Amino acid sequence: VQLQASGGGTVQAGGSPRLSCEASRRIFSWFIWRWYRQGPGTQREMVARIGRDSTTDYADSVRGRFTISTDSAKNTPYLQMDNLKPEDTSVYYCHGTGLCSGSVCADVWGQGTLVTVSS
Fold first, then answer.
1. If you count DSSP H runs as helices and E runs as strands, how many of each does the chain have, helices first?
2. Cα–Cα distance between 102 and 99 in angstroms, integer?
3. Contact 99, 30 (CB under 8 A)
4. Cα–Cα distance for residue pair 62/105, rounded to 1 Å
5. How does DSSP classify residue 76?
6. 98-119 pLDDT, tens digit each
7. For residues 76 and 72, what is the distance between their CA atoms, to the nearest angstrom?
8. Is 58 or 103 the better-scoring residue by pLDDT?
């Protein structure tokens, strides 16, 4: 299965876009979904995580502003980003651990989507 993040673009500071992660094939089960980001000249960092039991975790830099959730029909994640700041400018990636599609289960990185926050 392949993943593609979408929903990025240029937004003004304070904006609230929502990122989606589309799968090329139906996902029947998953273990953990994560969203990562990588800004200019920085290492990739995890910003949000959701487990199969719906427990969530966030990086300190986004806690209270970002919300991770899943589409129960598609078994794919969303990332609601509120009150964006210029320092949130990054390429955002979705990552699935234990994604099962058909008889194959794997950990998969998605293609990223660029979010640019203008001040």
1. 0, 11
2. 10
3. yes
4. 30
5. E
6. 999 988 899 999 999 999 999 9
7. 8
8. 58
N- to C-terminal Cα separation, the chain = 37
Q: Which of 4, 15, 2 is nearest to 91 (CA)?
A: 4
The answer to whether residues 110 and 34 touch, using CB atoms and an 8 Å cutoff, is no
H or E stretch covering 100: strand 90-101
Top pLDDT among 104 and 97 is at 97
CB 21 within 8 A of CB 7: no
State residue 102's pLDDT score: 85
Place of tokens 């998605």: 110
Q: Dihedral sign, CA of 67, 56, 92, 94?
A: negative
> Which ranges of 1-119 would DSSP assign to H, the alpha helix?
none
CA 104 centroid distance within chain: 22
